[in-house]
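step 4 of 6: structure.
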Amino acid sequence: MGDYTFDEIYAIVVMQSFSGVSLMCIYILMGLGLYIIFGQMGVINMAHAEFLVLGSYTMCLFSKFVTENMPAFENYYVIFAIPLSFGVAFGVGYLVEWFLISRLYHRPLDTLLATWGLSLIMQQCFRSFIGAREMSADLPEWLLGSWAASDIIDIPISGLVLLLLTVFLIVGLALFKTKTRMGLRMQATTQNREMTGALGINTKMTDRITFGIACGISGIAGAFFTTMASTSPSAGTNYIVDSFLVLVVGGLGSLVGLFVSGGFLALLSSILEFFMTGSIAKVWLYLVIFVVLMKFTRGLFSDKVRS
Amino acid sequence: MPSNTDYLLAIEDLTVSFDGFKAVDELTLYVDKGELRVIIGPNGAGKTTVLDLISGKTRASSGSIRYNNVELTSMREHEIVRAGIGRKFQTPSIYEKLSVYENLEISYPWGRTVFGSLKFTRTKQVIDRIQDVAQQIFLSDMLETQAELLSHGQKQWLEIGMLLVQNPELIMLDEPVAGMTAKEREATAALLEKIAKERSIIIIEHDMDFVAKIADQVTVLHLGKILKQGSMDEVRDDPVVQEVYLGH
Amino acid sequence: MINPINQAESSFGKVLYERLFKNKEGLIAFAILAFVILIIFPTVLSPFRLNLTGKYLCYAFAAVGLVMCWGNAGILCLGQGLFFGAGGYCMAMFLKLEASDPESTAIQSTPGIPDFMDWNQVTELPWFWNPFKSLPLTIALIITLPALLAYILSVFYFKGRVSGVVFAILTQSMVACLWYFIVGNQGYFGGINGITDLKTLKGWDIRTEDAHYLLYYLCCFLLLFCILLSRYILSTRLGRVLIAQRDKEMRVRFSGYNITSFRIFIFCFAAVVSSIGGAMFTLQVGFMSPNLIGIVPSIDMVIFTAVGGRESLLGAVYGALAVNAAKTAFSEAYAAQWLFFYGATFIVIVLYLPKGLAGIYHDHIKKWIGKSMSSSKNNDGETPALVTEEKNAE
Amino acid sequence: MMHKTNQLKRKLKTLFSVFFLLSSSSFVMGNEEFPTAEVCKTGLAVTDDTVTVGQLHSITGTMAISETGSVEAERLAIKQINDMGGVLGRKIEIIQEDGASDWPTFAEKSKKLIIQDKVACVFGCWTSASRKAVLPIFEKENNMLYYPTFYEGLEASKNVVYTGQEAVQQILWGLDWAYENLGARTFYLIGSDYIWPRTSNKIARNHIERFLKKKDSKCKVVGEEYYPLGHTNFRSLINKVKLKKPDLIYSIVVGGSNVAWYKQLKAAGITSNKYNLLTISTTEDELLGIGGENAEGFYACMKYFQSQKNPNNQAFVKAFKEMWGEDSVIGDVTQAAYLGPWIWKAAVEKAGSFDIDNVHAAHPNIELPDAPEGYVRVHETNQHLYSRAKIGKITKDGQFEVMAISDDLIEPDPFPKGYQ
């Protein structure tokens, strides 16, 4: 790095750190929905990535609708698109839990397969009903650019919004879990299903809502991902492996673990990608993860539970 | 390093904590050769955890468990079993898809490695041993029955039989008579007395009549600590024990 | 059911018969499968369709491997494509070297190395390609490499008691990792394009119709052999321990077994079986590509197994044939609807037919046969489906 | 459209012969001028009134996004040809197969088309990998593939007609243009990780380091990077680009990655008023997903842009939109796919036969004077097309503004000397 001035190196470190933080947020958002579902029901939702894509499509279609019918709102629709994406993904998730997942408790491996089937169906739905081509949301100009902090340093505005959104979702989720009746019911069901049922709480309804909320959060994440990446029927395949790994590295069912592993993976891939070319960086990323998991087979943070 | 003892099983200063909660707290317990020890105590006293610790299912936070003066706390489950300790679970844990014969055969202490089990054959010796055990556990007529068809009590016996096939020196039973009819309990008591002649037994049990029938020594656990130790009568008469447990 | 008391004295031949087939029903089921793939398919199908069937049978290897490690031992591997690919790539590397003799590659700047290396400025053969100059070494690697990979990838996780869902996800990441590895090392492994344009095996042209017939039979025999070997393993104590640890892990541990080594063994065994399938795939299809070791094909292999019945070895073969035949038939006519149908298959199998085709046979067909023949045979053997010939015959 | 008068004559003749057949109620079947026995001696699927061709693209899977345009263009060309009377008096019938974005499936389906359906030729494939997978089959079974995509070269099979550009055609002139007009001296090469971007960048690097350097010693490559297909996080790469401050970012990112790439460039402040970017992989198709505003002002080097103003192109765009909807866009590959059936038709008519060897022999020097992209001609030996390269500048509405057109037809040279 001898050719560069101190300012340049400083600027790169700042920007690269910010990229790392953005990536961490992405990992956390990817894993959040999975984490909730796993924590509640002990199953892995293989169609998770499709819920992300569902959110993306909601955003794209809503944007199209707004630009065509209500051009006046063009600059603000993003704010409404987020709850809308949540709503759509929540609805679909609610139905999926009702008709599919609820029949498969205690069979986690089978749930894996069934939800994979679901993901194929959802992908084909996107393709048949929305179209095979990629879509893009018309984003308002304020969300696209960057904030030039100095001559070299550019901080992406979408990255800042992403950071805010992540914090907002995490805080919201924490508050929801501890302060609302529904959240307490969720926790109770997670800890002792029979007992909670005996106390007159409708555990089935709780499960359905939990699953819906998890999908809804994925929907929000997906809606936001359109600002950074593509939306196409098979876009989910880009997310699937990474979001599972975030969860596994963190230790299943631990929110702190999710943070730590999001940060760990982001740090690792930012460093690796800076020093080597993309594909090989990805190979090394996975190899490092495997080795780490060989040592920490339960993930970096796992709830110590009495067996 | 604790000194060697003559005891078959010597548990000293054993502690295990889950997220700060001490399920077993500085426990010290000795079991003699040929002894039949019963552990009682209210729910949450740490009884099953003690068995988990001895059998290697749970790792101790501190303290030692020595069996024939061999330290067990760092060994893995199958090594502990091979050292001569057998364990029965609270709910009957048998292979429901296999026949009674196959259930017993799997426990036969030969060919327990991958390649050993590939080479394992049913020799006369194996068959004789299994028939012998089946006789003891009252299931000799049901060798070909699929295990899931057995009654609850028979499943309990089958699991005890699976231990016997292993021929361990120390047997640990977690509530062996739960869910049995009165008649079955009697038979079980007789069975255990017979078994106890050749080996040591640790039993966790709630049924006081049953305990009174079989126990040499009774240990009362409460909140991970030993509250009282002695014969059934001594224990029964102890006011503290009555307060925490029997009195309720 | 065999009478255990008498078994000790029975002759070697009888023991082997009972181990491989359990009873007459098992023998008949096996004979029917052999008859279908060895006699019926070659006579009924056109050479093109037969070659396709041969390709499907290669997937059946992976499905048989999954029956062993998922169905019987409870270890779901979503990365079976890794081993399938390992075998396929070994074979492809051997064939590619043979196809890249200096004369036919004279146009390259470095003649005598595979074309894709030349395109990527690789000027000499990398060291790890050297073993693939020899066929015996290649075959040895087809067997040992996947076993070694499976061992490395599983030993720490199984020791750390990673199982179930988490292990399934890890295997999926492993397959993704291998995919990136091959794609990122284009100069050494051909990248996305894979290793293509394979022509001869020891001078024998594998692209002719005769070669396809011969390779088809080779594939069938190897598959039947793998099934018998798997049957044998399941019939030993090892097989019972595997099933036992799947259902009651703790009980088996407390019977003094080190489950870890059993799991590693069966995982490696499944890997080797899949690898053989991969090698046969390369021979019959004529190329190998990273597309076969991705996440999706690996899950496809699981669905073949699930359709056939996860515990049934013969079911796995029928499952692989049925799903692939349906896929080909559907995509020739209704490509878009295929994915709906395929996705729905996953869900229906899981919800309503957890035992797959073998389950249909057991629960319905067998009763019907029993009724119509009114035989008083003692039928409690585990016998896979005999039902799908109509579905597979095209 | 092409050879209209010829076609008209032929059409009349066909009509006449049909009338003749009907009126005489004779059992002599078929096309008098081109009897089936004459035009097809190798058992292809040719009858007296029809000829069957295959179409093999991905309708499902990840590549469906890209290949849909090619499917549509080929269908349009075939429809137009049929409307004009078909080929040698025979209507073209299509058997379409789905490659499902999966190379073994491509191989399987191509075998099916050739061996079972005995099609006269196949229009299809998109990625290099799919072409490589089917190539041995086409060569062994001796059939003809019309391949539309710009690709890496290094191949000249007698069984493939390459209607897109090979790498040299697309790269050299574009780099020279950037050198002259954008003052590009330092170059950052970026690509998706597979053979086309890698080979193209190899050629670009050679051109920069050997030829441009002779003109100006400051010319150099400051970075070369590859990311897997489908990759969506380019933040680290973008920071590296910023550190190196190249005069030109030379981008060969393909597929879904494109969207992430351009959006993140914009978000990181790399826009056309600060940086120059030249791509050879982004067409109107991709811009649909990227959104013009995210890539506005960047350049692309292609041989066709939808916005080209010549009348042939305008007619083509109109016909395409009539058939496939007002919203459809046409990229470089889509147009190249459109040429396939026309070249085949011309070759068959020149040979007077559908047989592959005759068609192959007829290919050299076939001209399409009024193709949408302008005049093209098949090369004398290697079955690629001579064509003109063009530079387009991306506009806000996801189209290109044509900035420059090469003066000469560029010769296809799949095995370029000095670039390997």
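step 5 of 6: annotate
 - Confidence is low (pLDDT under 50) at residues 1-8, 375-394 of chain C.
 - The first helix of chain C runs from residue 4 to 7.
step 6 of 6: archive
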